[in-house]
Each structure stands twice: as C-alpha cells, then as structure tokens.
Amino acid sequence: MTNFAKLNQATGFQRSSTPDKQKVQPVSSKVLNNDENIGDLTLASIASNLHDISAIVNTPIPSSDLAYSSWMVEHPSALGSFDRMMKAAKGKRIVVFLDYDGTLSPIVDDPDRAFMSNEMRAAVREVAKYFPTAVISGRSRDKVKGFVQLSNVYYAGSHGMDIMVPSKPLKPCDAKNQATASTWDKESDMLFQPAKKFLPTTQEIRIVLEEIARKIEGARVEDNRFCISVHYRNVREEDYDILKEKVKAVIETYPEFHLTRGKKVLEVRPSIEWNKGHALEYLLDTLGFSNSGDVLPLYIGDDRTDEDAFKVIEARGQGFPIIVSSTPKETKAAYSLHDPSEVLTFLSRLARWRKASSSSRSLAQIWGLGNSHKANC
Asked: Structure pTM?
C-alpha cells in the first residue's frame, strides 16, 4: 500500500467506489458536514493530527500527499460521494457535460495522439443513452468529434465557440424521460458560432504563429478553428520565455484577440464574452432545460478553462461540478476525481445507476405502482 493510500485509509478518504465515506452537499458547497461515517473532519482537525496519522501508517508521509488529502476535505471524491450525490438527484434531471483532454483522455506529448480508450468511449456512450450528454473542448469541434466518435453526444469545440445542436429543443416529455433525450434528427442540426466574424483574422494569426513555432524546437501550433493553441510541452525550458514573448508580441498587434494559458499551452482567442460556462448555459437553453428548476448539470473537467463552467453551476445553486486533478489547486468545483481512470469508473457507475433506476420504475409500472402519467410521459 502506498503512503498516499495509507493516509487516505487513516483519514477516511479512499479513491474507490466505497459509498458514504464523506458527507457533502449536492451543490457547489465546500462545507463538509458530520455524520455517523466520518466524524468531525476539517482542515484544522487534520492539520492538528498529522503527527498521529504518520504514526498510524508507520512511515513518513510526503507533504504532497498531505496537501492533496487536505484539499480533498473541501473537494471530496465524487466516487466516495456517489451515493449521496445520486440521492440528492432523485426526482431531478441530470445533464452531463464533459471536457476532453485530461478528462476523457490522458494528457500526452503529441496532441494529435490524445486518444480516448475503447472502455471510456463505451462508458460515455452508455451515459448518453440515459442522460443528455455534451463534450465541451478547447479543440476544434470536428477534431474532438473525431476523437470521441459517438453520434449520441452533442459537441462544442473551441471552448464553446463552435456548437452543433438540434434546431428544435427537446420536448418536455423527452427531457423527462432522459433515455431518449440525446437523440435527434441529423438533418435538423444547426451551428452556433458566436466568433464567426473573427475566423479570417484567426487564420491570419495562425499563419504568423506557425512561422514562429518552426524556429523553436518542440513548439507546435494547433488550429482549433476559432482559437489557436501553441503547444510548448516539448519545448526546452530555456526556449519557453522566447516563445511566450514572441507569441505575446504578435497578439499585441491584434487588439480584438487575447492570450490565455492552459496545461503546457498558450491559447489565442477572440476577445468576446464567451467561454465554457456560456456554452453550458446555451446548451441547457437549446435542449429545453434552462427554465427547469429540477435540472442538475454535471460537469467534469480538469483545466482552468473548465472553471467558467464550474462557476455557472455554483451560481445556479445546484449541480455537480467535478474537477479532475492529482494535485491540489484553486477551483470552484465541489467534487474531485484523481485522473481519467476515475472518470471512467464514475461514468460507468452513473450509467449503471440510471439503468437500475429505470428497471425499478419499469417493474413498478408492471405491478401498477406509482403515477401512471409520470411513468408514461
């Protein structure tokens, strides 16, 4: 057993599917309440008992492990909290939103080889059978669709600046059933591209940045249609500042664009009031969920660009913002998953939970139990 696993065991945190290890609120609250399972776990109590924990596991505990476990007090595992989350979701409608890189696929050196596993694809496909499901990525919409390869999922590329949705919103009955909520007539799809007018300039900037990248070993420019990514994961440390300054110098000549940073990537985007949070709201509205008080958005992402979506869920006062991270970080997410393998476990469990719930309702219908109108709507 690793030091981290021993620490989790000692503090009651385990990254597993074991239910009810932590009691948390179903919304973006950072308050950890007490119950019979966990006692009084707070940052202060953990900090005051670190010496005792080290004695329990009988080995020195790396500070990084201690920091992560302390961070998980405020951002508990979505796996350990699963039963409580689903209990809170009873009678409500979950809509699933997923980032791609670092969430459905691992972060890799070559962005063109960020493939999701067949197991992950099967899990997303199964989730989309029961819940409206969208992938919101910084990649171009066509590229992320090519990675995911699923027809029952909505796609938003370029950090939400390129969205394909059905032209007609879901009927209320369809939205309530959820099992049919993620199907649509392909001929009625429509595009929403709020940054369309910037496309010619975006491509002009891309050409300039490609010329810069050619002169710096390891640098790579990715065309994400409405935004441009300059990858520096393979750039030598001594060359990074040179690359950054050259990119900044280019963007300063284009006042309608700005520069942001992601994981080992510089991103150039049009300066419009639009991000993944706006994309989440747009999709909820287009799919017919915006005016529904019983809708719970569930968003899983790993990057700082996903924080905009977490903020939207926090402002709604209900939903499940989940960050994927193996290190402590500032976040508006209420829950956490350690890595894409835990995302896979969570999504698989979510689909099984919904399938079991559907089977229970079907059995109730057979025996004439419950409200027949609700069962057939």
From this structure: 0.77
